[in-house]
């Protein structure tokens, strides 16, 4: 995003507009934090703003300021379509391709609104009028902070905006531990605390609201953990029956793959989750160092993401998906052992 873009966006936002903000399907902390952070900011400039998520999000995000104003496209389709059709501007946050919005893809594609992309995933599609894409960023929330900064408006950041942005930086950096966490990230986070983000409360809200069933499901996942030491890989499977047994709720498997990655010597971790409703196996991949799970997932599992965190999917059974994974891995033996 260059100076001319910023000048143009400033001009665009100088008059009241109808604005829709959209994150990716199955929104996570960064998706909800960035969309709501931007929502509160734009509201301060008297725009009419609506956040629309493609579908619902986990309970551990149902406290974020403004969360109760969100429209969910899959259950509030007519209202969502109306807002999109009325929009002068659509911000797309925390994703790089329209297909990541699921069923919203076609309405977004046909909309003639000005599109502004803010995102940190690799290889963004070229659909936006204005694009702020930076794969080195810890999170889209950090980018929304920068966006507000570029508009010379950081004094508009209040406790609500700060809370939203803190949330997404915290979740996308694994609580400030991933490589993408820079000294600048910490400076921004410090400023957000000064502006009223209650850091300890935010951590509690997200991480310390486990149900008993969720911990039992984690126990089951850890029991299913398998390790392939010669390939420095570990993976976890969860069947639909196991999810049902522990009364699975959206978000219950979030972060489970990180336990596999935390094993000594392991640099590639995967979780395969059976989703009978969608008829797919949902795959999460994580890595350490230069092994790119973005490339791996793009090449083999119709997905993508970042170098060290990516998602993917498979339309065959859980068993054959894992078989495929195991049969591909030896090709990467050198890469996995040269870290
Ligand atoms: P997760 O494993 O938590 O679902 O996703 C890890 C990261 O990869 C997240 O940043 C997520 O937004 C991204 N991601 C997940 N699935 C896909 C996908 O199918 N395509 C792309 N490009 N990114 C994905
Ligand atoms: Mn993100």
Question: Can you describe this structure in just a few lines?
Answer:
The chain is of the alpha/beta class and about 350 residues long. The chain has helices at about 5-10, 30-45, 75-85, 105-110, 140-150, 160-170, 185-195, 200-205, 210-225, 240-245, 255-260, 295-300, 320-330, 335; strands spanning about 20, 50-55, 70, 90-95, 115-120, 130-135, 225-230, 235-240, 270-275, 280-285, 305, 310-315.
Low-confidence stretches: none
Strand residue content: 15-25%
**Distance between the amino and carboxyl termini:** 34 Å
Overall pLDDT level: 97
Largest sheet: 6 strands, parallel
Note the run of SSEs as H and E.
Answer: HEHEEHEHEEHHHHHEEHHEEHEEHH
Q: Helix content range of the residues, please?
A: 25-40%
The unique ligands bound to this protein are: guanosine-5'-monophosphate, manganese (II) ion
Got a strand count? 12
- Return the structural class: alpha/beta
Structure annotation, total helices: 14
Characterise the protein shown here.
A 6-stranded parallel sheet has the order 3-2-1-4-5-6, sandwiched between helices. Strands 7-8-9-10-12-11 form a 6-stranded mixed sheet. Helix 2 runs parallel beside helix 5, helix 2 (29-44) packs antiparallel against helix 6 (159-172) and helix 5 (140-150) packs across helix 6 (159-172). The protein is α/β, with parallel strands linked by helices. It starts with a helix and ends with a helix. Strand 11 (304-305) and strand 12 form a beta hairpin. The model has no long low-confidence stretch (mean pLDDT 97). 40% of the residues lie in helices and 18% in strands. The longest helix has 16 residues, at 29-44. The site of manganese (II) ion has 6 residues, from loops.
